[in-house]
UniProtKB/TrEMBL annotation, chain A:
Sorted UniProt keywords: Annexin, Calcium, Calcium/phospholipid-binding, Metal-binding, Repeat
Listed name of the protein: Annexin 4
Top-rank taxon, per record: Eukaryota
Species this chain originates from: Hibiscus trionum (Flower of an hour)
One of the protein's GO biological processes: response to cold
Pfam families cross-referenced by the UniProt entry: Annexin (PF00191)
Gene Ontology molecular function: calcium ion binding; calcium-dependent phospholipid binding; phosphatidylserine binding
Lineage, uppermost ranks: Eukaryota, Viridiplantae, Streptophyta, Embryophyta, Tracheophyta
GO CC, any one term: cytoplasm
InterPro entries: Annexin, Annexin_repeat, Annexin_sf
TrEMBL record, chain B:
Designated name of the protein: Annexin
Claim: Secreted is one of the keywords in the record: no
Family affiliation: Belongs to the annexin family.
GO biological process, one term: response to water deprivation
GO molecular function: calcium ion binding; calcium-dependent phospholipid binding; phosphatidylserine binding
Amino acid sequence: MAHPSEPEVLDQALSGIGVDEKLLVSILRKSHMRKGCSKFFCEDERQFERWNHTAIKSLKAEFKRFKDVVVLSLMHPWERDARLLKKALKKGPMQYNVIVEIACIRSSDELLGARKAYHSLFDRSIEEDLASHIQGSERKLLVALVSAYRYEGPKVKEDTARLEAKALLNAIKNNDKRNAMEDDEVVRILTTRSKPHLKEVYEQYKKFSDKTITEDLEVELLLKETVECLCTPQTYFTRVFDAALRDDADEDAKKALTRLVATQESEEMKGVATKFEGKIKERVKGAYKDVLVGMLEK
Amino acid sequence: MATLTVPSAVPSASEDCEQLRKAFSGWGTNENLIIDILGHRNAEQRNLIRKAYGEAYGEDLLKALNKELTSDFERLVMLWTLDPAERDAYLANEATKRWTSSNQVLMEIACTRSANQLLHARQAYHARFKKSLEEDVAHHTTGDFRKLLLPLVTAYRYEGDEVNMSLAKTEAKLLHEKISDKAYSDDDVVRVLGTRSKAQINATLNHYKNEYGKDIIEDLEADSEDDFLALLRSTVKCLVYPEKYFEEVLRSAINKRGTDEGALTRVVSTRAEFDLKIIADEYQRRNSVPLTRAIGKDTRGDYEKMLLVLAGHDEA
């Protein structure tokens, strides 16, 4: 059996998502082996081999995953969501999809619980923080999404759904003249109607367009995610899992993995996740992998 | 403080039901008995009575009341018998319907209730109307009114006393700018009034007065015909000094030619178990006559009796 060179072993232990702790421990027990591990080390102008700065950053992120998934899973779901919302707000527009995700996927009572927890944790209401920190066109939509307390019964009015599908279609057609995200009717429909009703709107829309709402919203990412999370959550989960497990996934995409697995107990999510189980076992390493797989099998 | 009085020895719910059933039976109705019982029970007790009545006689107490009573008295008793959350849901729903629409009532409920009371109203709304309050408000209001009312009815305000003084300064300045530009329905005006905690808004408005010499209400009186401005003024009042707002509503209801029973009924039935005493004190201070006396002069019959009982005035 060909022994992999030590640099290769190190590389193996630290690539992918998470960290192969056992393998690392076995390496560290042996000799020092810095030379040749050019991915992690570089020679500076004094011929001194130092850790590559970017490598350290990404290593930190990989080691952190286990801690994050543990902390997130042990927290009360309301505190979890409140903290995730706060963090997403702080990080800025690139993370607003997390706000959409939480506001739209949680049940009405879970979202309410998060709002209560937010009061306790931060001495403010989530809506006042969102409203005062978000300056762009997404403010109206996001504030209204977190403020919703949607009816959860199955009752749906087909006629109203049809009218509202038409209204959405119009707003999307006029997107270049007026951002659909700022259209009062779009915001009203998406932020006040019940989820069963919105699923009906989604279906009715197909009668007026040869594309689905989400296909027509390719340009408006935040709106698209809103519709996905409300009407077709499996599509959303699939997309997020896929993006997280790709070879070229960036840090934000990988973080989504922890967030989804630690916060989602719904059957829909589990169903999607099982499709990715193979890929997870391949790409993810160490204790982090064990936690993820364990949670998915719960 | 509430004006509702409950006897120290309260009969059991089934005893109350029996008495009520007696009051309904035979020719006519024993209104005094109804007032005596229902007018002296708190929300929990009334809920128990309703439950017991349904179980004992297979009929909803409210339906029975609807059959037996009429007019203003009936509406008052009906509203009073509901528990606070259902009452708010009922009034809010009524306020979204075409013939009874009222932005003022929606704003009043959203702003004078505590965060949890508003929440319970929203929950009661789901249960009774199979829809969310916000979807009805959104569907039945338009323009600036919708822009203001939606955040108000969906708010879940922080309720602590903590106040950020520098934020109060910044937002007072912001409000002043927008108001000076007559941008009354500006995003930021709606944002401050719709999301900040009541304590924070209070601090902001105090700062406004200190800095600019005028109460914000005065600066919002530019156009007496503007309905939106009127709503905005009432919103501010409801958020920071609700007892003054309610006093005004009562004064206007009583002084109006012929009395505005709708408003009178609404204020008395919704505040009797909360702060009608404080409102009544404010009324006396402002009008130099006790609220109960003003009500007595302006109304009559069983309607008057029930109002007075709820307002804490019992005829010896």
